[in-house]
Amino acid sequence: MLRYLRPLLACLLLALPAHAFETAATAAWVYDMSTDTVLMDKNADQPVPPASMSKLMTINMLFEALRDGRVTMGTTFAVSDKAVQMTRDGGSTMMLQHDDRPTVEELIHGMIINSGNDACVVVAEGLAGSEEEFAALMTERAKALGMTASTFANASGWPDPSHRMSMRDLGILSKRLITEFPEYYPIFSQTEYSFKDRSPDNRFNRNPLLKLGIGADGLKTGHTEEAGYGLVGSAVQGDRRIIFAITGLPSDTARAEEAERIIGWAFRQFSEKTVAKANVRVAEAEVHMGDVDAVGLVPMADVRLLVPAQVQDTVTAEVSYRGPLIAPIPMGTEVAELIIHVPDLPDHRVPLVTEAEVGKAGFFKGFMTAADTLYARYIGSPAS
Question: What is the second-level CATH architecture of the domain 2-14+274-379?
């Protein structure tokens, strides 16, 4: 059966979060990478128009092509009529022309810094032959990466009823770009770029956080009339990195203010604490037919959690395992789970292993254990 024990964790007398953060965004997701903790979830799984924030998926597809060796930074792509038309239709652009042969490196800068719709079309056609085929590949790849609310109709985020992403999906994608492509990620923090000096009015990175000195180093803004103003951001302070995605703000000013407010809240309202040490007993489990009656349970690594700054109440914890455990049991066997309940945050689950080897009981102890079991079953049980 499922067993629960109160762990021996005096250090788990922690604080409740302060009042939940109220965001003006219509959908939002805030995540702490260092502790794998979701700090905010407001309509985070709702598919919404992502606007230019979906360019992150196009960028990911190009980064994967670089990693796989299908292209290099020096590979050049042709510029089609469709790509040039994106500039004529309005929106952000790196001002590509028919006779240009931009390199992959130039296109990356054009997509990230200029938010070039034309650059996205060039990449899509260069990798897949057509933007339609590329969009289908984007959707397929997104599902494989766990982005279950994402469907793509184009490479740029141009308004389309079937072009949708959730804020959680944008956060998952951002985490991937940061962790999987560290050699390219610094481009997201560059503040200006102009292809052949053609776009003086569009050379500046639209991310309003990069010059504020708050550790922001990415990733992408977005805006359409349907979507409102959104931003996928990341910032580092000390040993912590947070990722967030917001959308539905009424103006670029409101977007900038809300993004800065979220960063301040995420870093100032929580601090990272070690609540359990590796190989230090937090509980014990009952053992059947063993040379001992119980075995200690320990985490394999230090358990670090985000602790809210204001002390209001205690965090609770329990250990779950199916028991009693049956001997013999090797040392280091995963047999249980430590479940830490932090109000207003998801439960934190940590595997627990046996701290020592447990052998089978000797003949006499085994005989006595069997006798006790039989007595309890046939004699000690209450009459029916």
Answer: Sandwich (2.60)
